[in-house]
Amino acid sequence: MPNLPTAIIYALAALAEIAGCFAFWAWLRLDKPMWWVLPGVVSLALFAWLLTLIDTPVAGRAYAAYGGVYIAASLIWLWTVEGARPDRWDVIGASICLAGAGLILLGPGRSP
Q: Where are the transmembrane segments (predicted)?
């Protein structure tokens, strides 16, 4: 895969992880057929691979910063896929998490 910007990798990883987890949710909680698990597993494997593309020498930092992106992306999923609009506390919380992710990734002596 070409050298994608970190933000794009994180966005794709979040979509893959949320879609993969939602496939299991749909099977177990929404009475969807068991075959929903297969694309869920593929999506979760894609998520894990995407995180390996983050330009950092240590995995933990990539995962920690990703956490903030995941939270914000989950609220977008909540709104666009599940039709439940996030409230102001959701938005404030996600903003704090994204600021934290930025600090983790872009702190002094770190490259994106």
A: 7-28, 34-54, 61-79, 91-109
